[in-house]
């Protein structure tokens, strides 16, 4: 510690102002003056009168009080001179008292003792005087209760004496005065001031008791005003003579203790000086002091002692009345001895004139004399008639008897003795420093002595308090005073001292300035010593020191703050040294043997460092003196050092573990990382411009990768366990008391899976990883793991769902065991009995719940995507990604869609087939199997398969015919090679693959690079869920599609046109499932009523309603709408198949419908639209499938057929060419727009040349929002760009248009090839490939 800051170094103390070069008083002189003034206090104490003999008179009801008004009022005078605020009347009590006095004289006051007529008269007289403006203003300013008591006494005496002719007025005055005192007490109690002014309330109560003898109740004998008075008043008895024994002198005993002198010695000293230490000498001192004050001699304070004349005049104005009070107190103690003439003192004021003795009885004269002697006046009194000299100037230099020569030094000496005595005397209870009660610096006895001396020596209050603080400074410097006492001393100083220091003397101001500077330096030294222990376990709080500095010293107007630069520098240096010691203590817990060091030691050391920081921060919430922050010094010094030490310990520990073939537990790594990050955060918060010395993430990333690897390996097991524990059953209605709502129609497996997924995301987010590139990679791998788990969940649920949907009923099992002959006989029997009723499919609740689970999984995955903020991490990955030309495409994802097949070979005896497609790779591994399309040689599957490849791959497509009994028959087989090089434009391509037997298969292939991107993995997961939901929904609709095809078939058309019911041929067609061989009805027929057309669809709508009722018991509302939407699409496809064949470049064998058949078909379309829309008859709003879903592009295409269906072939060709030109112009404009834009194309779907867009990219499926946006854009594009596909499909039924179909097909291929080539060139240019750019230019020239 610096020697300059040592509290023991006296050389740095600010010098206290030097004392004048006069001879200082000796201890004996100080003792002598203290003793004589203590003795004078004894002489002036109020004395009791001797007891009177018992009166010889008749018994009376009440006797007059023996106590004089002088004795009663003297209590208030003593308190007033001691400047106690609690004995003054409260500020707001006078209006209350005025109101209560008005109630008394008006007779409205509720108390019985105030109902007497004479009482009301007395109060009325005083009320008139009280409400006079000048009187009320004076009382309001002084608020002294003795003024009110005396004036009321005078008024009551005058009024009662006029009312009574006998001597009864003498004791009635006491009674009325007691009533007035009680009224004041009632007002204090009414306003709640009896608590805040308890001393005043107690003294008023005592005054009332003394006014009443024998504790007479004022409420008794309400007619006491007219009762008989005592026979005669008792004469006043003489005062009890003084004993002159020191045991009866309270202040003398205090002086003896202070100076450690026996009382016997004090007694001898007093006896020796008794003839000199008299009341007359005290009066002479005061008179001489007054004369010196008036003549402005050097023996009193003068104008030179003050900064301004105004301050001196203000002090002098206040000094005169105070000296007069002292002189009166001396006179009243022994007026007979002091009086030298019969004249009374002048200057008593108007209040004394009301009590002239000439108007009173002898008894009252004595009482009035006592009262007059005991009353203190504000104006100075003329004391010429009481002893002393005549006031000539010859006495101005004569020495005082009781006032020492240098009152300040005498007062300070005794004050210092009082403080020392109170601090060290075992008989004096120690001050309470707990903070529960105000701290008292001095005892009551010391305070009484000092007040008496200050009053007799005329030491001003500000001088007394300045000297008091100087003594406190000395005690604190000598370490005899703690901070609590120092604070209490300042509080006492501020509560007692005049706040306007400009009214002080110059000497007091100088003393105050210097003692503040001295205390400031002493406090800084103590603060320094405290702060050297700031980083230790036990620490003395600095709050008290800082509070005293801020509240009592720095903000004091007399304080001039010295420079603190040296203190701040030394303190900072000392704190830095202490931080090093604190850090060494933290390292004591780390083993000396390096092989024993583990991650737990790093964690504990970091934790202890953080706890130490938190402790220091709580200790020092604000910088010391606004400059030194121990917390900042700790962070700046220790945190970088710990960062480097922890890095070495961690790397060494990991190396030792690897050498043993072990791994540090991931949990330990995460825990240590959390602590290291907290330390780094605090450091960078304190020093944002600095760089942390250690890259924590680079050091700890191994633990995250290991955790991700472990999680990826466990996710399949979690999914399988969740499925195995799920019963796929909803709670019964009896359990819930109601049907389960949509939020309750999923089961535990999907909830458990996403709880695990969210926990994984939470664990990663909880790390609060600060390296954004690493974190984006972590989230990408986590997204891949989530997709893996969801893929497994969809795979297992689809297998279970398919098994449950294909599970046969007992009737179907019995039918399956029949021979072929028995099956035909059963069919014939059903046909003969005209069995038309088809029972609804009994969908298992477990199957519907699985579909609900998939829908719930889609919603949860969308929330998870939002929680992870996928867009943010994708943008971070792209920002740090290398240029496109430097990226390595590891694998590609092919999306193969089995669209439809044409002219398949009939494998069943009824001339049809039940085809489905099986896709296999070159290793004969089965990749996919489509659903079965029953009784159809032109099936349409619209099913999608995704495969990931590293290079070219051969795929085989085998179409099988499904048979209930026996093996399935092969309809045909084809194969194709998928080479990523052929799909570098990332555009979808259609391939018609000829079968090796008969017919052909249409597949649509698109490719995109599998990217290590979080959006890609989320999109893939969404597509997996959506595909599972779509396939499961399709399996539900497949159970109903057969009846849709039956009710919306050409056979049904023929039945309506024949105006008959379902004939034998129509029933047969239900089983043959084909209408191609039936004869077309004539082109001219009668008009068919709409009701018959609607009745033809009633079996279908009833069938729908029955199945919907079964599904609605378990499916959610959204799943139900999805199933109904899929059925609506099936209805549209079926109606479309009635009208036109599929799109192809070859003529079709399908015949065109007649006008009447077309009308019936479109009426069917409208009927089915109304059925699926389910319009509410009351509200008019749809309750089924939304109208925007029903009015799909397919719906509009079918409606457009009505305008072209019967057009001439040539007109259709011209319309087709016009539409093709419009589409080409739109494509050209789109290519020009894209050429001028700055957007990239590689791997990101967007509009491309040729009007061909990349369909259903994985990135388009990364969340529900992108899916909805994609659907909206697709619908908008379908409405904006005209298509001639429907016209070409109509032309397929016109043999004369065969050549046009081929030409139009080749034209579309050329446009698509040109658009693809242009897209490749544009991608190469944007990717920055110079050589490819040149090639792109040549391609453009060749075009």
Folded structure, characterized:
It contains 47 helices and eight strands. Strand 5 and strand 6 (969-978) form a beta hairpin. With 1343 residues, it is mainly α. Mean pLDDT is 78; it is low at 1-22, 57-67, 79-83, 214-233, 340-394, 1060-1084, 1237-1255 and 1329-1343. It is 58% helix and 5% strand. Helix 27 runs antiparallel to helix 29 (748-766) and helix 30 (772-806) crosses helix 34.
Average pLDDT taken over every residue: 78
How many helices? The count is 47
Catalogue the unreliable spans.
1-22, 57-67, 79-83, 214-233, 340-394, 1060-1084, 1237-1255, 1329-1343
What does the radius of gyration come to? 57 Å
- The N- and C-terminal alpha carbons lie at a distance of 91 Å
Please state the structural category: mainly alpha
What characteristic shape results from the CA principal axes?
A: elongated
- Approximate helicity band: 55-70%
Give the biggest sheet.
4 strands, antiparallel
- The fraction of residues in strands falls at 5-15%
Beta strands, count: 8
Quick summary:
By secondary structure, this protein is mainly α. The protein is 58% helix and 5% strand.
Q: Helices, strands, pairings?
A:
Blueprint: H1 27-44, H2 69-81, H3 93-105, H4 117-130, H5 133-142, H6 145-163, H7 169-190, H8 193-196, H9 198-211, H10 250-259, H11 263-273, H12 279-295, H13 309-333, H14 335-338, H15 350-353, H16 362-374, H17 407-424, H18 444-457, H19 461-477, H20 483-496, H21 506-531, H22 543-554, H23 565-586, H24 599-619, H25 630-659, H26 666-686, H27 696-724, H28 733-736, H29 748-766, H30 772-806, H31 810-816, H32 820-832, H33 845-868, H34 870-880, E1 891-902, E2 915-921, E3 926-929, E4 940-949, E5 953-961, E6 969-978, E7 989-994, E8 1000-1010, H35 1014-1047, H36 1050-1057, H37 1064-1072, H38 1090-1112, H39 1117-1139, H40 1155-1173, H41 1187-1190, H42 1193-1204, H43 1209-1236, H44 1264-1280, H45 1285-1291, H46 1298-1327, H47 1330-1342
Antiparallel strand pairs: 1-4, 1-8, 2-3, 2-5, 5-6, 7-8
Helix pairs in contact: 1-10, 1-18, 2-6, 2-16, 3-4, 3-7, 4-6, 6-7, 7-9, 12-13, 13-16, 17-18, 17-19, 19-20, 19-21, 20-22, 21-22, 23-25, 24-25, 24-26, 25-26, 26-27, 27-29, 27-30, 29-30, 29-33, 30-33, 30-34, 30-35, 33-35, 35-38, 35-39, 38-40, 39-40, 39-42, 43-45, 46-47
């Amino acid at each position: 510690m610096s020697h300059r800051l040592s509290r023991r170094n006296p050389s740095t103390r600010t010098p206290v102002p030097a004392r004048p070069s006069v001879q200082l008083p000796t201890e004996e002189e100080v003792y002598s003056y203290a003793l004589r003034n203590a003795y004078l206090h004894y002489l002036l104490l109020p004395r009791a009168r001797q007891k009177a003999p018992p009166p010889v008179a008749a018994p009376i009801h009440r006797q007059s009080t023996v106590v004089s008004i002088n004795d009663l009022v003297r209590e208030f005078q003593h308190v007033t001179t001691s400047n106690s605020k609690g004995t003054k009347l409260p500020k707001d009590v006078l209006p209350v008292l005025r109101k209560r006095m008005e109630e008394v004289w008006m007779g409205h006051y509720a108390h019985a003792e105030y109902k007497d007529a004479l009482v009301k008269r007395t109060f009325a007289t005083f009320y008139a005087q009280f409400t006079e403006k000048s009187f009320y203003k004076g009382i309001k300013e002084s608020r002294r209760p003795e003024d009110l008591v005396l004036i009321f006494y005078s008024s009551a005496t005058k009024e009662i004496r006029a009312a009574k002719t006998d001597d009864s007025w003498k004791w009635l005055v006491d009674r009325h005065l007691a009533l007035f005192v009680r009224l004041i007490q009632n007002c204090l109690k009414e306003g709640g001031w009896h608590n805040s002014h308890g001393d005043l309330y107690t003294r008023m109560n005592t005054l009332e008791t003394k006014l009443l003898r024998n504790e007479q109740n004022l409420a008794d004998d309400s007619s006491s005003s007219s009762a008989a008075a005592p026979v005669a008043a008792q004469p006043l008895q003489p005062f009890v003579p003084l004993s002159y024994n020191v045991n009866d002198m309270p202040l003398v005993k205090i002086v003896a203790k202070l100076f450690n002198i026996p009382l016997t010695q004090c007694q001898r000293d007093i006896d020796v000086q008794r003839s000199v230490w008299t009341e007359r000498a005290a009066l002479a001192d005061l008179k001489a002091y007054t004369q010196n004050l008036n003549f402005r001699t050097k023996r009193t304070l003068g104008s030179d002692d003050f900064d301004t004349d105004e301050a001196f005049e203000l002090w002098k104005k206040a000094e005169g009345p105070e000296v007069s009070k002292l002189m009166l107190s001396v006179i009243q103690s022994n007026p007979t001895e002091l009086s030298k003439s019969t004249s009374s003192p002048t200057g008593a004021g108007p209040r004394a004139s009301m009590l002239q003795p000439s108007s009173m009885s002898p008894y009252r004269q004595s009482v009035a004399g006592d009262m007059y002697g005991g009353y203190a006046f504000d104006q100075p009194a003329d004391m010429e008639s009481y002893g002393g000299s005549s006031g000539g100037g010859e006495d101005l230099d004569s020495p005082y008897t009781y006032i020492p020569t240098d009152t300040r030094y005498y007062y300070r000496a005794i004050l210092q003795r009082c403080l020392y005595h109170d601090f060290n005397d075992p008989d004096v209870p120690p001050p309470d420093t707990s903070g529960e009660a105000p701290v008292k610096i001095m005892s009551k006895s010391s305070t009484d002595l000092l007040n008496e001396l200050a009053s007799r020596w005329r030491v001003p209050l500000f001088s007394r308090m300045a000297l008091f603080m100087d003594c406190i400074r000395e005690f604190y410097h000598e370490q005899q005073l703690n901070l609590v006492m120092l604070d209490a001393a300042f509080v006492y100083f501020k509560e007692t001292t005049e706040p306007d220091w400009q009214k002080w003397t110059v000497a007091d101001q100088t003393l105050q300035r210097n003692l503040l500077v001295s205390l400031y330096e002493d406090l800084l030294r103590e603060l320094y010593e405290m702060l050297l222990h700031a980083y230790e376990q036990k620490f003395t709080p600095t709050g008290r020191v800082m509070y005293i500095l801020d509240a009592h010293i720095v903000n004091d107007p007399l304080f001039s703050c010295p420079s603190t630069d040296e203190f701040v520098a030394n303190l900072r240096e000392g704190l830095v040294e202490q931080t090093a010691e604190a850090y060494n203590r933290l390292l004591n817990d780390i083993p000396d043997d390096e092989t024993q060091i583990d991650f737990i030691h790093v964690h504990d050391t970091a934790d202890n460092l953080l706890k130490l920081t938190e402790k220091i921060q709580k200790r020092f919430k604000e910088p010391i003196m606004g400059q030194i922050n121990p917390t900042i010094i700790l962070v700046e010094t220790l945190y970088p050092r710990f960062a480097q030490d922890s890095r070495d310990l961690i790397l060494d520990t990991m190396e030792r573990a690897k050498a043993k073939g072990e791994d540090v537990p991931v949990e330990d790594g995460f825990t240590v990382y959390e602590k290291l990050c907290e330390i780094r955060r605090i450091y960078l918060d304190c020093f944002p411009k600095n760089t942390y010395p250690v890259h924590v993430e680079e050091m700890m990333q191994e633990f995250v990768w290991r955790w991700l690897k472990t999680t990826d390996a466990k996710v399949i097991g979690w999914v399988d366990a969740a499925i195995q524990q799920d019963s796929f059953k909803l709670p019964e209605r009896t359990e819930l008391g109601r049907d389960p709502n949509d939020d309750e129609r999923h089961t535990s497996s999907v909830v458990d899976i996403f709880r695990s997924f969210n926990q994984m995301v939470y664990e990663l987010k909880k790390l609060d990883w600060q390296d954004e590139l690493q974190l984006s990679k972590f989230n990408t791998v986590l997204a891949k793991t989530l997709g893996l788990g969801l893929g497994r969940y969809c795979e297992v649920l689809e297998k279970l769902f398919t098994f449950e949907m294909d599970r046969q009923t007992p009737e179907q099992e019995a039918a399956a065991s029949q021979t072929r002959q028995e099956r035909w006989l059963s069919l014939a029997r059903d046909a003969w009995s005209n069995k038309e009723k088809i029972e609804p499919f009994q969908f298992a609740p477990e199957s519907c719940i699985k579909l609900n689970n998939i829908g719930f999984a889609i919603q949860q995955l969308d929330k998870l995507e939002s929680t992870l903020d996928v867009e943010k991490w994708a943008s971070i990955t792209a920002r740090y990604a290398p240029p496109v030309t430097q990226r390595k495409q590891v694998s590609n994802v092919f999306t193969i869609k089995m669209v439809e097949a044409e002219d398949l070979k009939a494998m069943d005896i009824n001339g049809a087939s039940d085809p489905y497609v099986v896709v296999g790779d070159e290793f004969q591994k089965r990749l996919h199997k489509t659903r079965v399309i029953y009784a159809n040689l032109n099936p349409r599957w619209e099913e999608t398969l995704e495969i990931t490849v590293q290079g070219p791959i051969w795929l085989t497509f085998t179409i099988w015919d499904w048979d209930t009994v026996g093996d399935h028959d092969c309809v045909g087989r084809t194969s194709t090679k998928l080479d990523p090089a052929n799909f570098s434009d990332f555009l979808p391509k259609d391939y018609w693959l000829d079968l090796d037997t008969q017919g052909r298969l249409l597949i649509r292939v698109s490719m995109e690079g599998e990217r290590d991107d979080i959006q890609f993995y989320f999109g893939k997961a969404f597509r997996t869920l959506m595909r599972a939901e779509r396939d499961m929904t399709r399996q539900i609709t497949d159970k109903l599609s057969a009846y849709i095809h039956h009710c919306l078939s050409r056979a049904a058309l023929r039945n309506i046109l024949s105006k008959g019911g379902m004939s034998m041929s129509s029933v047969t067609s239900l089983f043959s499932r084909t209408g191609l061989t039936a004869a077309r009805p004539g082109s001219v027929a009668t008009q068919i009523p709409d009701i018959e057309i609607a009745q033809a669809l009633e079996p279908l709508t009833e069938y729908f309603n029955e199945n919907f009722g079964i599904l609605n018991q378990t499916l959610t509302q959204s799943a139900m709408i999805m199933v109904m939407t899929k059925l609506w699409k099936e209805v549209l496809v079926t109606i479309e198949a009635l009208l036109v064949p599929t799109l192809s470049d070859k003529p079709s064998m399908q015949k065109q419908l007649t006008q009447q058949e077309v009308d019936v078909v479109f009426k069917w379309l409208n009927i089915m639209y109304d059925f699926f829309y389910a319009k509410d008859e009351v509200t008019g709003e749809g309750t089924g499938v939304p109208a925007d879903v029903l009015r799909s592009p397919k719906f509009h295409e079918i409606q457009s057929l009505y305008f072209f269906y019967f057009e001439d072939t040539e007109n259709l060709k011209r319309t087709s060419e016009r539409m093709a030109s419009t589409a080409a112009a739109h494509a050209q404009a789109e290519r020009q727009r894209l050429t001028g834009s700055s957007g990239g194309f590689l791997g990101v779907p967007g509009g491309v040349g040729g009007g061909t867009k990349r369909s259903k990219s994985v990135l388009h499926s990364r969340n529900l929002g992108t899916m909805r946006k994609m659907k909206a854009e697709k619908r908008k594009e379908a409405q904006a760009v005209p298509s001639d596909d429907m016209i070409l499909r109509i032309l397929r039924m016109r043999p004369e248009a065969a050549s046009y179909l081929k030409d139009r097909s080749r034209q579309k291929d050329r446009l698509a090839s040109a658009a693809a080539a242009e897209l490749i060139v544009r991608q190469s240019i944007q990717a920055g490939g110079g050589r490819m750019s040149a090639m792109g230019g040549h391609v453009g020239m060749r075009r």
